[in-house]
Amino acid sequence: MSAGADSFVFQYLAPFVGVLLIAVGIAGAVPGGYALVEPDLENCGNPTIGVESPAETAERFGGDERPRLPRLAFADLSTAEQEGFRAAIADPVGEEQVVGSVPNADAFRRGAIVSYEGEEYYVTIVAENTCFAAAPLQFPLGVFAIALGFLGVLAPPLYRRLVRLEQRAGRSE
Amino acid sequence: MLNRAIVEGSALAVLALAVGLVWVRERRAARPESDGGYTTREEIEFEIGRVQSEVYRWLTTTDHRDIGLLYIFFGTAAGLWGGVDAMMLRTELLTPPADIWTPETYNALFTTHGLTMLIFFVLPVFFGIGNYVLPLLIGADDMAFPRVNAVGFWLLPPALILVRMGLLIQVLGQVLNLMLPAEAIRFFLTMREVSVGWTLYAPLSVQQPNPQIDLLLLGLHLSGIATTVGAINFITTVVYERGEGVTWANLDIFSWNMVVTSGIALFAFPLLGSALVMLLLDRNLGTAFFATEGGGAILWQHLFWFWGHPEVYILFLPATGLMSLILPKFVGRKLFGYQFIVYSTLGLGVLSFGVWAHHMFTTSADPRVKLSFMAVSIAIAVPSAIKVFNWITTMWEGDIRLTAPFILCAGGIGTFIVGGVTGVFLAVIPIDILYHGTYYVVGHFHLIVVGIIPFLMIAASYYWYPLITGRWYDTRLARFQSLLIVFGSFVTFMTLLVIGGLGLPRRQAIYPPEYQFAQQIATVGGYVIGLSALLWLYNMLVSYWRGTPVTTTDPWGLKATNQFTREWQWFERRMVEKYDVEPTEPETTRRSYAPEGEPTGLAGGVGTVAQTVSRNAWMAAAGGFVGTVLMSGGLGTAILIGVLDPVSFGEIAELVGLPASPALGAVLFLVGGTVTWPLLFLAFSEYLPGRLLFETGLVFATLISSGFAIAFYTGQSGLAFVGYLTFVVVSHWAYGIGLTVTFQYLKSDEALRNRGGSDG
Ligand code: HEM
Ligand SMILES: [Cu+2]
Are B23 and B51 in contact (CB under 8 A)? Predict the structure, then answer.
């Protein structure tokens, strides 16, 4: 290779800037892209409730000691809440997302006792599942940065190839 | 909220697929293709038979070099797995609320990340390096107990799977759930990754119902057995298998470190094993070791940290051993103060058992007891400082070769200085009470666990790549990768030090929005580390097939400085026997501790005056910028700790007639560091003492630090004054080294260019 075949700018600076661009691009594109697909992937904005079994509930509140918690009958719950409640009881971990309106959210947030088929269940919100918000440009710009970054990382071999090309061109003239 | 199991499972699958593809592609490209025709049936059968015999060989081998490689592959794979956890952690922290993963997922991530990295990444890789090179270094034929060695390794994969089964089962469960009703696969849906923190503190670890915790404890126990077995083997090998002429007094420094490390492991891991069994019994058989009625939750902490602190040194000592072994080779000087390094290693081995309670300063104990732990914890800084001092002295007057391993060594010393100094502060009870549980701690220990430890692993991988594979890696890519990982680590973990100093608690998925920008910087830095790890992996894989074959018996030119150590002598013998090459003889040799020392002739170069001036100016600016960034880390820490008053930065702004704002002052400071000081340095360096640029840089930095110390003094007294002076001087050193090393780096690059060679 001839004297000019190594360039600091192309050998080190360009790939360095490239890596930085990729890193920033990932940081932008991942949340940005996630914000775009989230509504299709799952129900955001609906809380997940955790329901403890009657036994656990009794243990938590120490038998006959009356906890000062809101008490709700199963019938007081909205349809969505009822579905979520039943699914949570069936769930091995005792958690289920409520899909639909949650009028009793405040009570659940503090923790409430729901009586259902003669048993008492302790119900709380275990995750709010708020929707993720990101600037609309974040995703496209992030992807762009990643692409540009790749170009930077690939700059040294590309550059060497170009130099070789020129040399060959010079020779054949 | 994204589904962790799916995301992590796919990320790992993509990574594995990419590695496989690169491997297969390069392998095909490397094979002489005959006619490019169709693959025949015989060819496929032959291929299958070959794979079978290869698999059989690797499963049954007892050769120390094979087992070493197995350990290294295993550790690397685990490191990548834990690294994916780290990237996911950092991704969550891009935004203040917990909106990418749930808080529970976040907890699981830092738990598994910590355990995987500490237990399944660092130790196996070091045991692997030890297995490969230690027998060569001491002239032994193999390890003392080759079969036990194989058993020790093969315990690790099941251990890792037990520990991380939660994720596998979750992925499986979610796949099955697409086809089967939830009832039938209840087990798969119940199990999840452990989220109680890698320290497994009682009572949470006793009470959480997740059955995966029990599997995790069993897995950890198994890995402890593997480690103990390996440690016994290392000790026996060094004691009984040393070759002729290898005595304790001239045993190489890496083997010394492996012996001490194994010694620590021998005392620490059985204890961890007992504690784990007690926890298992508490969880499953109703014993009360860690229940309030029994030993109490604090008992767990004592047992855990009595293992945990020595474990830190088990991870760290092999790295220092590699540093002491590799650094001299690239500065052409013998390791300075061999004896003191050995003593300091032994000292660390003993002291490491005496400081565990510094992890428990925030629990209640008699203040006098705590005080004694504080004293020992501060004292343990002395042996570590001896090592740093000896490394720096080794470089002094050295003939530095800016190869990738050297860059990693220098970077490792840098991160270790900052990581170590911040650790001394944590050893002081009142400071620990302030910073315990903040990101300051995370920054401190990551500067060591990401700074010096993997840096030296990578340095070793480059240094011995020709020895292991008979080929060269892509040196240009390696230098770039080294600089990148050093840069990324400084950015990430210095930022964490700062936000921790401001009081941000760690282990929280949710944080106040004020910290968002800093967290994003740390995350981008983290991604840079991740990308550079991928570049390393790519280099290793591709060079195995495509690297230039090594044609000399002395690839690093070590004979010229009398550093042709035993593992390379073994390499030479093998090259001579197998390939009939002539042993390489250097043109000149010199004693490794009396380097010729090139004349400094600082900028040198050819061209017109104007060209030289502009060229020097931009090189100086680049060096100055690197130096200033390094320096700001030190000064930032000083401000956090409260020994340097940021108001004094406002005064610089005032000096030049701007409003007295510290931010403005800091910008001015950065500009000055990039522009003014390097030029002054260029102008005066001819007149400063020190034969090599890097020494001159230190002298220069020390000189200007006195000016800085006077200018920024704001009436500190007593300890604060000492701290102030120390930080000022050390930060300036970082500046001086950053400036000159960058400068030399650019210059050597230019020299190479002028010589017209690619760097080979
Ligand atoms: C050799 C490599 C590494 C090791 C041995 C290591 C070790 C650890 C350990 C033990 C923890 C647990 C801390 C705790 O108890 O809260 C941890 C947490 C963490 N690590 Fe690493 N780590 C490594 C690499 C990385 C990298 C490359 C990154 C970032 C890119 C990273 C980011 C984090 C984060 C964000 C946490 C969580 C801190 C918290 O929860 O407060 N680690 N690491
Ligand atoms: Cu400790």
Answer: no
Distance of alpha carbon A80 from alpha carbon A98, whole angstroms: 6
- What is the predicted pLDDT for the residue at B255? 95
DSSP H helices in B332-452: 338-351, 367-379, 381-395, 404-426, 429-435, 439-446
Instruction: Tell me if A27 and B102 make a contact (CB, 8 A cut-off).
Output: no
| C-alpha separations of B480 from B98, B406, B459 in Å | 35, 12, 13
Distance of alpha carbon B706 from alpha carbon B724, whole angstroms: 12
Residues in chain A, pLDDT under 70: 1-6, 42-43, 63-67, 169-173
Lowest-pLDDT range, A79-93, B269-283, B471-485? Answer: A79-93
pLDDT in tens, B645-694: 877 777 766 665 666 677 777 777 777 666 667 766 766 666 666 666 77
Q: Side by side, which strands form the sheet with A71-73?
A: A71-73, A112-116, A119-127, A48-52, A95-97
H/E element, A51: strand A48-52
- State both tokens at A63: 């038998």
- Better-scored residue on pLDDT, B416 or B634: B416
What confidence category does residue B393 fall into, taking pLDDT thresholds of 50, 70 and 90? Answer: confident
pLDDT (0 to 100) of residue B752 = 67
Residues 61-80 of A with CB under 8 A from B: none
Give chain B's mean pLDDT: 85
Length of chain A measured in residues: 173
What does R_g of chain B's alpha carbons equal in angstroms?
27
Amino acid identity of residue B527, one-letter, is Y
Token representation of residue B198: 């890698």
Mean pLDDT of the B352-359 span: 89
Residue type, A27: A
Helix (H, G, I), strand (E, B) or coil at A113: strand
pLDDT score of B36 more than 60 = no
Token digits of residue B337: 């103060």
Signed CA dihedral, B451, B417, B375, B362: sign only: negative
**B14, exposed or middle or buried, with CB in 10 Å at 0-12, 13-18, 19+?**
exposed
pLDDT at B596: 34
ipTM, two decimals, is 0.71
Q: CA–CA separation, B280 vs B292, rounded Å?
A: 16
**Strand-pair category, A71-73 with A112-116:** parallel
Nearest by CB to residue B746, choosing from A2, A8, A132, is: A8
**What's the pLDDT score for residue A2?**
37
Residue B535 token pair: 């570049």
Q: Looking at the partner chain, which of A1, A27, A93 has a beta carbon nearest the beta carbon of B527? A: A27
pLDDT in tens, B704-750: 787 778 777 777 777 677 778 877 888 888 888 788 778 777 777 76
Long-range contacts of B292-301 (CB under 8 A, 24+ apart): B292/B203, B297/B201, B297/B202, B297/B203, B298/B360, B298/B363, B299/B202, B300/B200, B300/B201, B300/B202, B300/B205, B300/B275, B301/B199, B301/B201, B301/B359, B301/B360, B301/B363
Give the mean model confidence (pLDDT) for residues B330-342: 85
* C-beta atoms of A16 and B483 within 8 A: yes
Side-chain-facing half-sphere of B330: CA atoms under 13 Å: 22
- Range in B48-52, B119-123, B150-154, B302-306 with the lowest mean pLDDT: B48-52
Q: Contact A3/B756, CB-based, under 8 Å?
A: yes
> In the block, which residue shows the tokens 């594995």?
B16
According to DSSP, the residues that pair with B549 across neighbouring strands are B471
Length of chain B: 760
Q: Which of residues 194-233 of B touch A (CB under 8 A)?
A: none
Q: Which amino acid is it at B588?
A: T
Closest C-alpha to B170, from B221, B211, B229: B211
CB B532 within 8 A of CB A15: no
* DSSP 8-state code for residue B357: G
Cis status of the peptide bond prior to B662, with omega within 30 of 0: no
Residue nearest ligand 1's atom 42 by CA: B86
Coil/strand/helix, residue B627 = helix
d(CA B281, CA B607): 78
